[in-house]
From TrEMBL:
InterPro entries: Aminotrans_3, Aminotrans_3_PPA_site, PyrdxlP-dep_Trfase, PyrdxlP-dep_Trfase_major, PyrdxlP-dep_Trfase_small. Transmembrane segments: none annotated. CDD domains: OAT_like (cd00610). Its cofactor is pyridoxal 5'-phosphate. This is Aspartate aminotransferase family protein. Keywords: Aminotransferase, Pyridoxal phosphate, Transferase. One of its GO terms (molecular function) is transaminase activity. Pfam families: Aminotran_3. Belongs to the class-III pyridoxal-phosphate-dependent aminotransferase family. It comes from Meridianimarinicoccus marinus.
Length: 452
């Protein structure tokens, strides 16, 4: 490949990056990744980095498994593209749909394919509104989501999400979206116990339903554990209360499993970890371990029946059920299954990460260390007793720590002043130890910078 300097110059000249301060990046130059293997990435200067984020929470089986490359090549030779519109289908889309129906919780026996989580959530907005219209309740339109939720970047999915910075650009949200708070006890729980706070946050859903009018609310959407919002693991009291409120007011429950699906929390789906009964489930990322772009909406028998009986659902993407993406996703599910990667997260490597990660609470900057399966967060604070925020703008310290981790060849993410990891499910104990060592070094260096 060309030299790092040439790559960086061309990148700065022609490539606009997602969620990136381009001016700052142009000064620094992008770190150009040329290779992956397991939990490791290699950059264009030959430096190896430990990928603590599985790319963007997606490379569940680890980087660059040759089996998937072979499946993709074989499928491209057989049938590189065929659509699933009108009255056609093809074996990879069919086999994957059947497998997903087998794995999904409850009666989510139908999949509507997309190429991403954003597109799948756009499908969900149209689907739930259309469903209620088919049921003779066209006024049931409003979807309630949560503050700081990330459900994607298209106009629909970004509207569904609760990120203020996204709404500030491009005149979002679209009409018919409402929002409640997030169950973020560490920062927002005040003097309440986590359990009381979890219940109080769930009851905001009931208050919102009364405010909007129960006849106007179509659905509630949430992640089992909010990911990009900061790995917010809800108190135990939260989900039972939410579930009861959805049932009492005839709301559909859309569970966004884009991050929590495919083993991340120690079960196939976070819905199983938290005992949820979704009517619709959003999937993407770990579905193919990021090897191909593919996502979808898993849909209940009831919704599929009602919508199916009503004629055309006028919706679809050229790449819905793309044959190569579907074949690769199916092979990825087989690897997760045959290598027992998910029970391994639940019973072995998840608890191992939990124990070692908790040790970071001894660090002077860390107020709380939390894990759920192989997703983990550290709440940074200048005052552990008060769970206080830093005096500087939220996120400044987190960004310093993220940069120190990067300089120590660990990919770690920050959400405000929370430090996040979600490594591949294949990570070994030795690699967890190495990850913790590098995270600790990043924390020490951040602490030193703050004291200067
Ligand atoms: N939903 C959740 C919970 C996500 O974390 C993401 C992406 O990070 C999305 C949806 C959007 O998925 P995509 O980036 O594939 O469009």
């Amino acid at each position: 490949h060309p030299s790092t300097t040439d790559l960086q110059a061309q990148d700065a000249a022609h490539h606009m990056h997602p969620f990136t301060d381009e001016a700052a990046l142009a000064q620094k130059g992008a770190r150009v990744i040329v290779k992956g293997e397991g939990v490791w990435l290699t950059d264009s200067d030959g430096r190896r980095m430990l990928d603590g984020m599985s790319g963007l929470w997606c490379v569940n089986i680890g980087h660059c498994r040759a089996e998937l490359a072979e499946v993709a090549a074989a499928q491209m030779r057989d049938l590189a593209f065929s659509n699933t519109f009108f009255q056609t289908s093809h074996p990879p889309a069919i086999a994957l749909a059947a497998k997903l129906a087998e794995l999904a919780p409850g009666n989510l026996n139908h999949v509507f394919y997309s190429s991403s989580g954003s597109e799948a959530n756009d499908t969900n907005i149209r689907l739930v509104r259309h469903y209620w219209a088919c049921r003779g309740k066209p006024q049931k339109q409003v979807i309630i989501s949560r503050k700081n939720a990330y459900h994607g970047s298209t106009v629909g999915s970004a509207s569904l999400g609760g990120m203020a910075a996204m709404h500030a650009q491009g005149a979002l949200p679209i009409p018919g979206i409402a929002r409640i708070g997030q169950p973020h006890w560490y920062r927002e729980g005040g003097n309440m116990t986590p359990e009381d706070f979890g219940k109080a946050r769930a009851r905001e859903l009931e208050e919102a339903i009364h405010r909007i009018g129960p006849d106007s609310v179509a659905a509630f959407i949430a992640e089992p554990v909010q990911g990009a919002g900061g790995v917010i693991i809800p108190p135990d009291s939260y989900w039972p209360e939410i579930t009861a409120i959805c049932e009492a007011h005839d709301l559909l429950l859309i569970v966004d499993e884009v991050i929590t699906g495919f083993g991340r929390t120690g079960n196939w789906f976070g819905s199983q970890t938290f005992d949820l009964k979704p009517d619709i489930m959003t999937i993407a990322k770990g579905l193919s371990s990021g090897y191909m772009p593919i996502g979808g909406s898993m849909i209940s028998d009831e919704i599929a029946d009602v919508v199916g009986q009503a004629g055309d659902f006028a919706h679809g993407y050229t790449y819905s059920g793309h044959p190569v993406a579907a074949a690769v996703a199916l092979a990825n599910l087989e690897i997760l299954e045959t290598e027992n990667l998910i029970p391994r997260v639940r019973n072995h490597i998840g608890p191992y990460l939990g124990r070692t990660w908790e040790g970071l609470e001894d660090h002077p900057l860390v107020g709380r260390a939390e894990t759920c399966g192989l997703m983990a967060a550290l709440a940074l604070t200048p005052d552990k007793a008060r769970r206080a925020a830093f005096a500087a703008d939220e996120g400044v310290v987190g960004e310093i720590c993220r940069d120190r981790a990067f300089a120590n060849d660990l990919v770690m993410r920050h959400v405000g002043d929370r430090m996040i990891i979600a490594p591949p499910l294949t990570i070994t104990e030795e690699e967890v130890d190495e990850l913790i060592r590098r995270a600790c070094k990043a924390l020490d260096e951040t602490h030193a910078i703050l004291r200067q």
